[in-house]
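Summary of Year 1 activities. Much of the first year was spent building the evaluation harness for sequence design. The harness presents a backbone, in tokenized form, and records the residue chosen at every position. We chose the following record to illustrate the format because it has been used consistently in internal testing since the harness was completed.
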């Protein structure tokens, strides 16, 4: 495995009103529309083509960047995923702070496509609620079309990993047994800031994960504490549905969320929330009022 400074990191970005994809290289980005114009121009298609495209991209990893990273508007790495699904109650400390019993089965819910948000884009506080919460999560991206994946084979279907924030509107989430509405408000599924390919990460159950609100550390854990590991998640979900390249999976959050504090501490307009995962990167967003 290469030094983390040379990890293969793939980003989607907007420049001149056009969405492009590129390789993050140090403080710059290698624009694939320039460096490899024969390759697919969107992330989902690139992921699907990776068995043939990957070797060409790795050869480009040392090329001179075309753009300064700081000058670009980074988008969610997969701007329009076919599916966004999330597992709940997947860290023991988070279960304890919610007063729930550990689940005997995996608990899943969808986040809708309207919730997708860039890694540094503002997160909306909706007009409908004052109970907006943060959830730092490891996110993985499916790399190949698959169904009925054995646990032992699951590492082979993961394309890469991101940091994510499963933003949750708690009163809406707990109003009914189904979490979907409370988890799917506009802008409430930021992830990124890029995809680190799976071969660079190796075992994803060794990563420190943290969240901060206005600079205050709120969550501080490690993915080794996941109850249902990434491979178990894939093995179960793939029995129910075909997984496709570019599908996005949120893997659960550790303890330290706002709803469990005394008194509860929810996000308000003007707050800044940051999520960090070792060897992947960080998201950071300002909370803004939902626009008229």
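For this record, the design step produced the sequence shown next.
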């Amino acid at each position: 495995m290469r030094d983390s400074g040379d990890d293969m990191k793939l980003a989607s970005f907007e420049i001149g009103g056009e969405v492009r994809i590129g390789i993050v290289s140090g403080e710059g980005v290698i624009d694939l529309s320039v460096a490899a114009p024969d390759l697919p121009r969107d992330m989902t298609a690139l992921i699907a083509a990776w068995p043939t495209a990957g070797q060409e991209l790795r050869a480009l990893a040392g090329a001179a960047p075309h753009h300064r990273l700081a000058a670009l508007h980074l988008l969610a790495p997969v701007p329009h995923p076919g599916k966004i699904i999330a597992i709940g109650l997947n860290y023991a400390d988070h279960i304890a702070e919610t007063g729930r019993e550990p689940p005997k089965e995996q608990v899943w819910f969808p986040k809708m496509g309207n919730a997708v948000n860039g890694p540094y884009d503002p997160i909306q506080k909706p007009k409908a609620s004052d109970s907006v919460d943060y959830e730092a999560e490891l996110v993985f991206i499916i790399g190949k079309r698959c169904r009925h994946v054995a646990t032992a084979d699951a590492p082979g279907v993961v394309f890469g990993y991101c940091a994510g924030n499963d933003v949750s509107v708690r009163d809406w989430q707990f109003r009914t047994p189904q979490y979907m509405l409370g988890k799917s408000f506009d802008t409430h599924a930021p992830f990124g800031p890029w995809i680190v390919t799976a071969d660079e990460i190796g075992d994803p159950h060794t990563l420190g994960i943290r969240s901060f609100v206005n600079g205050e550390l709120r969550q501080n854990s490690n993915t080794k504490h996941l109850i249902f590991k990434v491979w178990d998640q894939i093995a179960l979900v793939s029995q129910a549905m075909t997984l496709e390249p570019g599908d996005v999976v949120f893997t659960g959050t550790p303890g330290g969320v706002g709803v469990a504090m005394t008194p509860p501490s929810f996000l308000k307009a003007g707050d800044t929330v940051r999520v960090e995962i070792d060897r992947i990167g960080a998201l950071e967003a300002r909370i803004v009022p939902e626009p008229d």
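The two ends are 49 Å apart (CA to CA). Quantitative recovery figures across the full test set are reported in Table 2.
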